[in-house]
Amino acid sequence: MPGSVDYAIWLLGTLLELGVVVCAISRKSFRRYLCLNLYMLLSFLVSAGRYEVLSLYGLKSFEYRYFYFYSDALLTVFLYLGLITLYLHVFDEMKVESHLRLVAVILLAGTAVFSYFVVEQSQQRILTRFVFELSQNLYFVGLVLTYLLWGAILKLRETRARLIQLVLSMGMYFSAFAATFALKNMFPRVPGVGYIIPVFGCLLPLAWAYAFWRLPEDARIAPARLAVVPR
After folding, report:
1. Distance between CA 23 and CA 41 in Å, rounded?
2. CB atoms < 10 A from the CB of 39, how many?
3. How far apart are CA 102 and CA 110, in angstroms?
4. CA-CA distance, 157 to 166, in Å (whole number)?
5. What pLDDT band is residue 110 in, cutting at 50, 70 and 90?
6. Sign of the CA dihedral with 11 first, then 27, 75, and 172 last
7. pTM assigned to the model
8. How many CB atoms lie within 10 A of CB 206?
9. pLDDT tens for residues 118-163?
10. CA-CA distance, 90 to 159, in Å (whole number)?
11. Which of 31, 117, 152, 155 is the most buried (most CB within 10 A)?
12. What 3-state class would DSSP assign to 220?
């Protein structure tokens, strides 16, 4: 069973996820960033559901494992969709919504197909394995897309403070996941590695709550603060 530290981080993250939705509704930004807020709301509900299943069946039960992996895949898809909506916000003046949606669907379908072939070649040909691979691969796709989006923000000299805050926090979250995955593969017995994702799981909603509560939609950041352009 998880220890007291695990439960404390879990509870803090759950409350912060709910806080994001409350801040977005209070600042009338829920619909504007619908996918991001739906992700946080769903994450809050999933956290409550995981605690209930964990209490009833235990950490090593099949019920908890199935619930964890399937809910994680659902959350990953919503986070991916939230990232795509940030692309739409950045490129909103270029009228390329249909192209971005098509690329997003192709990437999602391609990731699913790739995940299927990975499972097909393994000995564990079960749906749970496919869901796990899909979540892992979508995280790495999200990491690449986030850095590409940040490059576009610098190139287009985007100055909307709230949008920049959301993109940067998502980039840190995806980077933390990639670092955790790499560290677990290289040093599987090193203690403390498993806390990286839960801690950043708290920092992500904290950053989003700050963005919705403290940064108005029309707040701007000077381009010089984003990047130093050589003369």
Report:
1. 12
2. 27
3. 12
4. 16
5. confident
6. negative
7. 0.88
8. 18
9. 666 655 556 677 787 888 888 889 999 999 999 999 888 888 999 9
10. 10
11. 152
12. strand
Residue type for position 175: S
Contact 163, 219 (CB under 8 A): no
How far apart are alpha carbons 90 and 121 in whole angstroms? 39
CB distance 31 to 223 below 8 Å: no
Which of 53, 94, 22, 39 is CA-nearest to residue 204?
39
Residue 195: both structure tokens together: 């806390």
209: its two tokens = 């709550």
Place of tokens 């100055």: 159
Tell me if 104 sits within 8 A of 72, measured CB to CB.
Answer: no
Q: Catalogue all structural domains in the chain, each as residue range(s) with its CATH number.
A: 4-220 (1.20.1070)
| Tokens coding 201 | 């799981």
Among 158, 192, 141, 41, CA closest to 88: 158
For all residues of the chain together, what is the average pLDDT? 85
Backbone Cα Rg of the chain: 19
Rounded Cα–Cα distance for residues 51 and 60 (Å): 13
Going from the C-alpha of 218 to that of each of 75, 89, 110, 127, 145, the distances in angstroms are: 29, 13, 36, 45, 25
Which of 140, 167, 172 minimizes the C-alpha distance to 156? Answer: 167
Hey, what are 217's tokens? Answer: 């939609």
